[in-house]
Design brief:
The chain has helices at about 15-25, 35-45, 55-60, 90-100, 105-120, 130-135, 150-160, 170-185, 205-220, and strands at about 5-10, 30, 65-70, 75-80, 80-85, 125, 140-145, 195-200. By secondary structure, the protein is α/β, with parallel strands linked by helices. It has one domain: Rossmann fold.
């Protein structure tokens, strides 16, 4: 039976970076579920549909085609046949992703694909409801968090490196709004489940966090 590690946590906690490193160490597939919701948001934006409009988003997902490929542990996401791996990383798309992720019909469609992948291959999957909803029987559940100021700083530096014109205070505000939206949504909200190991990465290096997760997987995972 395929093995799985679920990594949940708020925006900017380092989930994707850590998940990529852990999956590479274990030879697992890395699945960034947030990218899927970003793709839905991008589709809405390009179609002129308000990402908060449940009716409009439901119409979009009836015809949306999202595909994920993996090459040397690098994930690429395709929207209607086009590689949008970079296009989905803007601030506008990030805000839109929080809106569409709160729509039950969107989550059900994305979760179906996520579970299908996890049912076929060993995965490290990161998101906000992986351990609580997507993979409730994951072999190991991690809740990765960090101080909001540190998370905002990390995201600011990430966007600045990509050449995007960003303001640290605005990044922090967007992140707080995303956190509030994720934790307060009615369906599959962001939360730490009782059997998850919480790791605060505020003062930890990427290597330290990855090493800790690998330690828990090798010594305490339900395998």
């Amino acid at each position: 039976m395929p093995k799985s590690i679920a990594i949940d946590g708020p925006a900017g906690a380092g989930k994707s970076t850590i998940a990529k490193k852990v999956s590479a160490e274990l030879g697992f597939i890395y699945l960034d579920t947030g990218a899927m919701y970003r793709a839905v948001a991008l589709k809405a934006i390009e179609s002129g549909v308000d990402t908060k409009s449940r009716e409009g988003i439901i119409r979009i997902i009836d015809n949306i085609n999202i595909a994920i490929t993996h090459d040397n542990n690098s994930q690429k996401i395709f929207l209607d046949g086009s590689d949008v791996s970079e296009d989905i990383r803007t601030g506008e798309v990030s805000a839109g992703a929080a809106n569409v992720a709160a729509i039950k019909e969107v989550r059900l469609k994305m979760v179906e694909l996520q579970r299908k992948i996890a049912g076929e291959k060993d995965v490290v999957m990161d998101g906000r409801d992986i351990g609580s909803y997507v993979l409730p029987n994951a072999n190991l559940k991690i809740f990765l968090t960090a101080d909001i100021n540190e998370r905002a700083k990390r995201r600011y530096e990430e966007l600045a490196l990509k050449g995007q014109q960003v303001n640290l205070d605005e990044v922090k505000e967007d992140m707080q709004n995303r956190d509030n939206s994720d934790m307060s949504r009615a369906f599959a909200p962001l939360k730490k489940v009782p059997d998850a190991v919480e790791i605060d990465s505020t003062s930890m290096t990427i290597e330290d966090v990855a090493e800790k997760i690998l330690y828990f997987y090798k010594n305490y995972a339900n395998i």
